[in-house]
Structures
1.
Amino acid sequence: MTNVIARLFSRPRQGEAGFVAPLARPAERLHMDVQSGRQAAGTLTRDVFFKPPREKQAAGFSVRAFTKSARSASRVSRIHRIVAAALLLSICASASAQQPSRTTRKEITHLFEHLERSGCQFFRNGSWHDSKKAAAHLQKKYIYLLAKELVPTSEAFIDRAATRSSLSGKPYQVRCAGQVEIDSAIWFTTELARWRKPMRSKATPASGDA
């Protein structure tokens, strides 16, 4: 009888039928939960950061390809703009940098000779000068502009060399005997037009000669 009661109240040992493992103590359960949480977090980290899905890889490749193509297009566009600007500058330079023709040289030479023979006074930078000194001064400016290829026409010579002072910007003036002073640009332009008339009439044949 005693043995029967002892068997009823005794717990089966490990390996025997009916053995149930005892529950872990609270501290052990906490340790197991922490370990399980760490394992789960590590698995999640590896899945997210170290094993991206194919869709993410494809998206990243697309972004890199688009960025690379955009940079290439921007580089090509910048090169095109530089080439176009250089071409425009060369066209402008070729248009402005021209040597005067033979006719233009003759006209400018005549203007110098006419000024020397006129006996008029030439006003520049606050004082009057005789015609020979004035012609010598304008010839120096003409040689400088000629070296820079800035005198393609007689009008350009008058405007850039015989109109105003390069230092002060004040206009030149011419005063002849018995006449009031006028701007040198008007004086030279009037003489150029007068000298061109007989030259044009010689170049143009009469109607009866045709």
2.
Amino acid sequence: MVNGRAGADRRKRGARLAACGWLALSAASCTLLGERDASLAPPVAVAAPDEAGSGAPRYASYACGALGAMTVENFQTSALVVPPDGPSAELPARPAGQSRRFSSAAQSLVLEEGRAVLSRSGQPDLVCTG
């Protein structure tokens, strides 16, 4: 019986260690996912102008009245637009070589001094201010 009891104690200890290891990994993955999600969140304030000197900010948030805010991440050759009332989209710069006008077949974005205008097919223009 001594061997049976020792085996049971070892199994219990192994189960406790496995549970502790699972909890530790779960907590670490939650922290890592939380950090990753936070880094992907759009900023809420206008950042400094880009290095190329175009005056268009790299990150910007524009107020769109009662709809909320539209965020724009300007990559110079394209822009990631997150409107308050629809899905996000990455629009290429058109024409190439400038960083204030972006468009695709269905929508276009124009960044002016302190203002962003998003035009989408079949919808009124969304004019937002920064």
3.
Amino acid sequence: MGIAGMLLHYVLALVPVYVVALIVNALAPTFGGEKDMNQALKAVAYAWTASRVAGSGVIGPWLGLPIVLIGGVYSIYLLYLGLPHTIKCPPEKAGGYAAVSVISATVLGWIVGLVVAGVIGTAALTGAAVGGMHVTGSSGAGGFMSLASAMAPEEEKQTEHGYEKTYGANGNLVHEEWDTQSKYGE
């Protein structure tokens, strides 16, 4: 990934926090709060800390999803608790304010995810290097196959008359089929 990739990842992790703080700040008068960008940034950064810390839970595959979900719910709760203190919105409006802020952040995340996936997908299809994967060949299909190989869709199944196997080997997607009756395979 290199230094440039790490810097890009770091920036892409901070920019959404700032953009959501802009949204929280813009919504403040709607929910009876005071517009103050510093306070909005404090509320969002504080709330998102729990989900960022919980994101490290994906290291353990079985407990990862529940830990991330608990961290996300706790982040929403922290935002709900923090908005009356930072933005000075009435406590009875904090629930709706937090809900609208979370929905806005979710939509923003989907949009950014689609844009990033589009850029990475386009790079793979055009034969560019993505991470540790190097795509060679001049066809778009070659890039697509290399991208599929990087995702490692390993599958093995027995059929009535043989087997089918799909796996990644040396950066290539390999699909094997063998028919025991006809003694034919590819």
